[in-house]
């Protein structure tokens, strides 16, 4: 449990860096409790009233205008990279859909979530390689355990967009 708690603490720190970014889920705070000899660390995140991108793809697919809009929203990934962070697990399950008031009424916004596997470019090489992420969306260099860079997120984003278009993953994996 300690390892998972550390992951959530790290995630909270990453989310703090993006409090004003509309394309990244907002973190309103956290709680720590002690139960059954375990410390439980909970993040209080923005409510994703429109669900998860993966469910939307599975249910009915996406019309072209939504595909374009969600892809544009997820390009908030560039803001993550400008802060020298690699997300390491971009996939439809880690993109939540919120409903915001827009100029033309209620609009859905795709937001990146789950920074639990994220790393900074400054982390040492040993921490910056290996199996971080979901194999189905991992870049070849990540699968080959080469050093991570922002390109691994771009690869994952391409796999995600492919899945949004076709409603099928680019390939199957035993660890999907």
UniProtKB/TrEMBL annotation:
Gene Ontology biological process terms in this record: signal transduction
Name this polypeptide is given: Protein kinase domain-containing protein
Annotated Protein kinase domain residues: 1-176
PANTHER family linked: CCR4-NOT TRANSCRIPTIONAL COMPLEX SUBUNIT CAF120-RELATED, PROTEIN KINASE DOMAIN-CONTAINING PROTEIN
Domain of life assignment: Eukaryota
SUPFAM superfamilies for this protein: Protein kinase-like (PK-like) (SSF56112)
GO MF term set: ATP binding; protein kinase activity
InterPro entries: Kinase-like_dom_sf, Plant_MAPKKK, Prot_kinase_dom, Ser/Thr_kinase_AS
